[in-house]
């Protein structure tokens, strides 16, 4: 098999319905925002390649889940083979914030004993006046749950979207290199592709992996 | 100028406007010029406040009535063969003369219905409905419930072709400025759009009944598997069941046959390897070469009528999940199945390239073998009849105690899945074949393709 990436991270996006998970992903991967964006049926995914250090190409498998309860059993089965998780809530809907703890616990329970790296995202920060959750509150929760980053983002105004994904990727990368993310057999949350030292960034073959 | 524009509207939309013009046709004189009556017609006359237009039409109507004797027009309608797609398409000429003929009276309309409806169910019911109420809306509603679904105005089954032509027509209407007509027509077409797509737009269970049923069944199946495992008192029994399910899933993954597991029972044909005759897996594998020779048959025999759209879906679905880079199915099977080895473990191991996994599994299996007589466990599970929908439903007890246990079973489940997934997962890219998550996707994809609309699901499959 022709690997052109050095690492592959599985990343799942979770959160209640209509908090904007799909919009976030669409903004990140396609650079656009569609107001009438439709809700996914069960699960959807996108691929993104990141080269945040020269010569190190990371392939992100981004799983976009449906927040509805009825699709829970589907989205759950994708938690397991992810290493990173974007926990998204809607800044303008307090209840989506209050459900975060449940989401977190569910994921942790479910992926045991694998490691899952979280990032907390308060979405729709463009709607400043309707905000029902303060930044301090969200940061407090993040701290309590041991989540390193909290980001207020907006897919509509393209605020902090890229940086949210990138800081999560960076954190995973660093944790992996610190030996904090063990790779187990049969677990595909984080895979190592081409060894970094053999990889030559000037070769054009890197472009291949985008589609098949 | 006014009347001319009304004529134009009539032109393009006339076959849609069928009933509404007939209502102005003297059959219901009291409704003439009554705005309420006009709004009652599903088709909004774009100029209801223009009685002058109506009166002019009436004059025309009079002429029409003269030229079309009712008996004569009956014959004519018969000749039109309204359910023949080609016929209809050739007849939608939208010329003046055709429009005149289409502007039929109530009698003509019921003649049409009588002609067409024998192929539909509940003929009398609808006729009385129409006769009694004389309401176009009721008529339309009745037709909308008919199986297979019809566009009320056209009385034909909605095929891809017709759908496309209709959308073209809408487009033309929009281009020529007939916005309200276009809107009405479009709305009526959209009502018939595949429910999987509708679900994405608005989560409405009534509008997506099949999808809802499918999802429900999927979830129930999932609950049932959990329940049935957790309900065993002894750890050994739980282990047995676990292994059994894993075996089944492996087998399914080899054949890429997912949909039939999850189709409601009454629509699913019995998969060959779970037929009531073969109460044991090994029996199946004695005739394995036969099974392997025709992996496609397994797919084709699955789900006549499908969950949503028929057998094409399930077989096509299996194909769609196959990533292009994947080695073809029969090859991988032939290399992986060693008949001698299979008799020992009834399942062909789909991951022959991973000896390390196997060795680890073997060690585990050894332990299990000690505690569980394999024959015994196989039979037990077979008795459960995994595809019997009723059976499953009765077993989903969902009592509090069970549910509590089920919640506790997450670990068990992840054990199952961990066990299963290595063999299902391809080396690169997201796991498009493995298990539960993809089934809905496949269905979405297939239905999308049917209409010629590609959604993000579809494209994302080939995005890897």
Automatic annotation (TrEMBL), chain A:
UniProt keyword terms in alphabetical order: GTP-binding, Nucleotide-binding
SMART domains with a match to the protein in the record: RAB (SM00175), RAN (SM00176), RAS (SM00173), RHO (SM00174)
The protein, known as: Ras-related protein Rab-39B
Source species of the chain: Acipenser ruthenus
Keyword match Hydrolase: no
GO-annotated molecular function: GTP binding; GTPase activity
SUPFAM superfamilies: P-loop containing nucleoside triphosphate hydrolases (SSF52540)
Highest taxon above the source species: Eukaryota
Family to which the UniProt record says this protein belongs: Belongs to the small GTPase superfamily. Rab family.
UniProtKB/TrEMBL annotation, chain B:
Top-level taxon of the source organism: Eukaryota
Pfam families per the UniProt record, alphabetical: RasGEF (PF00617)
Domain N-terminal Ras-GEF: 428-464
GO biological process terms held by the UniProt record: Ras protein signal transduction
Spans annotated as Disordered: 1-80, 295-385
Molecular functions per Gene Ontology: guanyl-nucleotide exchange factor activity
Keywords carried by this UniProt record: Guanine-nucleotide releasing factor
A single GO cellular-component term on record: plasma membrane
InterPro entries according to UniProt: Ras-like_GEF, Ras-like_Gua-exchang_fac_N, Ras_GEF_dom_sf, RASGEF_cat_dom, RASGEF_cat_dom_sf
Record field: compositional bias (Acidic residues): 1-12, 376-385
Compositional bias of kind Basic and acidic residues: 57-71, 361-375
Protein name: Rap guanine nucleotide exchange factor 1
